[in-house]
Amino acid sequence: MPRPHSVQPGSPAGGKRTRNAILHAAASLASVDGLAGLSIGSLAAALGMSKASVGAYFGSNTELQLATVAEAARIFAEEVVQPALAVPVGLAQLTTVCEAFFAHLERRTFPGGCFMASVALEMGDHPGPVSDLIAAFQSQFGALLRDFAATALAQGELPGSEDPDRLAFELNGIIFAADTNFVLHDDPAVLDLGRQIIHQRLRPAGA
Amino acid sequence: MPRPHSVQPGSPAGGKRTRNAILHAAASLASVDGLAGLSIGSLAAALGMSKASVGAYFGSNTELQLATVAEAARIFAEEVVQPALAVPVGLAQLTTVCEAFFAHLERRTFPGGCFMASVALEMGDHPGPVSDLIAAFQSQFGALLRDFAATALAQGELPGSEDPDRLAFELNGIIFAADTNFVLHDDPAVLDLGRQIIHQRLRPAGA
Known about the structure:
Two copies of one chain form a homodimer.
Chain A: H1 15-33, H2 40-47, H3 51-55, H4 61-85, H5 91-106, H6 115-123, H7 129-154, H8 164-185, H9 189-201
Helix pairs in contact in A: 1-4, 1-6, 4-5, 4-7, 5-7, 5-8, 5-9, 6-7, 7-8, 8-9
């Protein structure tokens, strides 16, 4: 199983890059072993760093968990959302965001599949600031899908019988299922099936 | 947060019922705190029992985890699959199995939502017998949905353009999304939206 690379705090690039490298390693670790158990101590041990070196960047375990979620959300925005914002508004955005999600899984950005999906199920029943941050992320992503769908509908690119809320929920479900099956069976065929489904589901109106 | 009830090993109903009660408590605990950390020691502590009493039923932590997954799969079969096997074959089975899944979430059989979905994402990247058992369960459930869909298609209850593999994947995704959103937002409106989507998605051919 992939393990985070070791982080050298003394690298010339300085504190910010070290903090980012620690956070990326933390997100990789949490995507496999869970977020609830992520602590300054467990992360330091996994990275072969001292607790004090890791603790210098994060004041508490909760602060570390919040920063890890924020870093994973930043990577998700970069790899999954940004490609969709670069194409024409409407249906193209909807297909692109789903394709970008499959590419995100395929390149195994995190060893445990989609970080945000893993921690949503793990932390959803642990009320607190970390769970609130994850819920806010999921709501925002749902709203983004809904906005793309509403634009596609307004532009006549989807059948008038479609509903943006329902379609967003369905697409979210298809990519969740792809993530779970990909993590569980480690089979790229899962992603091909996911792509086919998106292609069928998002046929332009009249096609 | 709901915690498992304490288990009284000295109850007159005897060892088998005690074992089942321990396993149900173990599945509840694992649906919230994860399966990887479930051990004879952690379960004994959560139940207020001695390690020796819990250990009398399970030879090792792996055996306990496997038995917990098997118990959760038994409950899933009883609550989600059985209702669908009791209705006419084809489309009615497909709608009934989805409805039964939403009812399973709604009655909060496990405090952390669908046990099998939670542990699939958690354990999928921890190779071993527990992950294999979960993958086998997910494959079987996928095959069940596909069989229901194939029968519905063969009976002309769904448009000929549908594909059983794709439809099974989509339905699995919709119920995954309902689970994740229900766990994260604790809002029954999520289940209503899920029901609407299933109703729309599974309109009979020609309707």
